[in-house]
Every structure is written in structure tokens, then in C-alpha cells.
Amino acid sequence: MIGQSGSGEPVFLTDGLHSYRAIRPWARMPQGQEIGALSQLIVNDDGYVIACQRSSPAILIFAPDGSLHRAWDHPKLSSVHGIFLCADQTFFVTSFDRHQVLRFDIDGHLLQELGTFDRPTWGAPFNHPTDIGVSSNGDIFVTDGYGNARVHRFDPDGRLLLSWGQPGTGPSEFSCPHGVWINAQDRVIVLDRDNNRIQVFDTEGVLASIWSGFVKPMDIWGNASGEFFVSDQTPRISRVDKSGTIIGAMRGFTAYPHGLWGDRHGNLFIAEQLPAGIAKYELVTETSDSRDAPAPKGN
Question: What distance lies between CA 248 and its chain's CA centroid?
Fold first, then answer.
């Protein structure tokens, strides 16, 4: 199915700058299998979409044509939530009901482990962590969002350097920090979901600005031009400029788009919920300045 109109015709969308064609469902499972509840996804440099599924197998890897390439699990992955692609094509995953952040290669080899399996900690890493971002020097930032209301910063070897945040509605307080992105200037952009806002910090946790206009923001991805795409529970996908102003938006199709990522061709991939699936927002207007190439990753 392409898009979702009553007549079965394709659905075309615009974010205010470019136009897209919605391909839904894009990801295809083998006959007799279905995609479970999805949280987030990434797109690696080879065009493979790696998605987090909250049931087993936890990791689903789809080829560029949407077919299932492989799937795998790990004993320490349970109720997976956030995922982040590193420059070396390894990736971090939050196992939020096991209170850990784990780093894998594409074959499922565990490379790094933050937090202690099944050991939640109030105010310290971790208590149902939600998402991960990596800065230009390789520091790891984790939103610790469902139990704690904190952001934790680790060095590349996994040593805790700094934590900030507490429950509340004031500046630098959080009500479910649900997603995080580190931009090219090493600003830590935190989706403060249940406060309906985004808070931006420097790497020392000092508040720089607060962005408004969102309804329970869920996930964020930044392109090479310094703009961002944010999914929220309106449901919609917003294009946001460097200052946090919404400069365009387009609809989400299901209850809400939980996760999103973009590829080097300017296409967007959306982890949809209720019903679960992956949508591809295929770019149909050409650009001459590579505005939608993926942003350089830290680490």
C-alpha cells in the first residue's frame, strides 16, 4: 500500500520545503510473520534500516528494498527503546526495562555495556533509559526518562562524567526526557516529552534555550544543513530550523510516529505505532545542495 487514501491512491506530503510520497507499509516481513511494537530505527551508510522491536527478536534489519535482511536477539535486550548510529556503523540501544545501554555491531556482537542488568537506580544511571546521542568527541549522552528525569554524560569508555535534571516543569527539569540529539555544535537537544517542549543544553548541562510548539515530542533526527525533523503525538513530523522554530510539518498516519531517521538521499523512515510498521517518506523533489544528507555522527 502506498500512502493511505480511501481510493488507494498515493499520498503526497510536504514539510514546507520538500515533497514526499508516503510508502506504507515499506518494511516487509516473511509470510506468516508480523512486525511487533516498534520504538525507533536508524539507517546505516549502506541503506539498511535497523529497527528496535519490543518483542523477540529485538533487532530487525531491513534491506534497502524493504525486505527483511536478518533479525537477531540478545539475552540483555528487553523492551528496547532508543537506538543511535555511530560513525563506525556500530550502534547503541537502550534496553529500558533492563536499565542498560548496550553497543552492538550489525551482527549482534555486544561491544560495550553501560549500567547494570536489572539494577534500576534512582537519580543515577539507569532507571528506564530512553535514548542516546554521541557528541563530536565521542562522549555518550543518555536520556534516563521513564523512571529518572535525568540526562547522563559518559566518556567514550563509559565512565560517568555528569548528570543533570530532576522531575518538574521548570527550566532544566523534565517530565519524561524521551529523545536526544547532539548537533554539530555539540548542543544537547532533549525532547522533554510530557512537558510538550524541547530543551537545549551545552555539554556541561547548562540550559541554552527552550523550544515550544510540540505535542509530546517523541524522536528527533538532524540533517547536514543543521535542521531537524521531530515526530510528535499530534501526530505529525515537523521540520525545525536551527533556532527551534517549526518551519513546516506533515502528518503521521498511525496513532503517532514513535521514531524517525533519514538517509543520504533525503528520504525519511518512520517507526509507526498502532498499527506497528515502518513507513518510508520518499523524497520526490530534487535538491541541488544536498540539504538532506545525514549529519556527521560523533564517535
Answer: 19
Residues 6 or more apart whose CB falls under 8 angstroms from that of 114 comprise 100, 101, 102, 125, 126, 140, 142, 154, 158
Bridge partners of 259, per DSSP, are: 271
Listed residue (141, 136, 135) closest to 177, CA to CA: 141
pLDDT, mean of residues 168-179 = 98
The CATH class for the domain spanning 13-283 reads mainly beta
What pTM did the predictor assign? Answer: 0.93
d(CA 211, CA 228): 12
DSSP symbols for 32-58:
T-----EEEEEE-TTS-EEEEESSSS-
Q: What is the pLDDT of residues 28-75, one digit of tens each?
A: 999 999 999 999 999 999 999 999 999 999 999 999 999 999 999 999
30-39, 140-149, 279-288: range with lowest mean pLDDT? 279-288
- The SS3 assignment for 223 reads strand
- Measured CA to CA, the distance from residue 279 to residue 25 in angstroms comes to 5
Nearest-5° Cα angle at 235, 247 to 2: 95
Q: Where are the domains of the chain?
A: 13-283
Q: How far is residue 38's CA from residue 152's CA, in Å, rounded to a whole number? A: 24
